[in-house]
Write a sequence for this structure.
């Protein structure tokens, strides 16, 4: 069980090895990596030069731990990892990593998606984007709320 | 109590945190918003967008009618946009 909030990059291979090394009960590892991207559907044409992620130290860790605990309650996970970065990122930079480890694939897939959907609406992070015309705070998306809501009933 | 601001609330108010001593009549998060909004023009402008403001009391999400009894830290911020 692990939750990390950090500015440094993460290494998917290293983290996968860390979660599975020496185990013979693991049948599935699902991972999601969220990456800063250039296109900006809200703005129309203007590409994103960079984004800065701000968070609420203390509350962030508490929320991520609560989200992880909820995933473990719902699915038979052998292990689980959430790494969320903060700071300034350019398109192509990885921002968030979610990994789930289980005996069978369905639990790993479902729990990984659940963790991301809940994280998007419950973890206190805020994105500020830089474009050629200046900086703007990213508005929350209704589609993210809808994605989180579909998990509101226990699986 | 410690008041924290994040994202555009921080930039609009011009500070990340402040210490506030609201009167006893201020018992809920919503009443705290009203009281903070009167502190300065910048507070007033930022807190005008009430529908876009979320609140956490002692690092747990709360509502505007949540009571402040015993709270050490109250944070105001827009809906989250991480991930």
């Amino acid at each position: 069980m692990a939750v990390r909030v950090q500015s440094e990059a993460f290494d998917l291979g290293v983290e996968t090895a860390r979660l599975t090394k020496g185990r013979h009960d693991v049948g599935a590892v699902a991972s999601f990596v969220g990456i800063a991207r250039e296109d900006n559907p809200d703005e129309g044409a203007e590409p994103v030069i960079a984004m800065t992620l701000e968070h609420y130290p203390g509350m962030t860790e508490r929320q991520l731990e609560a989200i992880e605990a909820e995933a473990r309650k719902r699915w038979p996970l052998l292990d689980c990892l959430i790494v969320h970065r903060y700071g300034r990122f350019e398109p192509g930079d990885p921002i968030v990593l979610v990994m789930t480890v289980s005996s069978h694939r369905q639990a790993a897939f479902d729990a990984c998606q659940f963790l991301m959907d809940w994280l998007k609406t419950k973890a206190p992070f805020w994105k500020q984007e830089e474009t050629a015309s200046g900086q703007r705070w990213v508005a929350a998306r209704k589609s993210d709320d809808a994605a989180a809501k579909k998990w509101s009933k226990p699986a | 109590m410690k008041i924290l601001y994040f994202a555009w609330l921080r930039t609009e108010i011009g500070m990340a945190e402040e210490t506030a001593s609201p009167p006893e009549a201020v018992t809920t998060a919503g009443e705290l918003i009203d009281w903070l909004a009167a502190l300065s023009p910048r507070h007033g402008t930022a807190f005008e967008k009430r529908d876009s403001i979320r609140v956490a009391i002692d690092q747990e999400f709360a509502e505007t009618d949540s009571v402040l009894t015993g709270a050490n830290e109250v944070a105001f911020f827009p809906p989250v946009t991480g991930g």
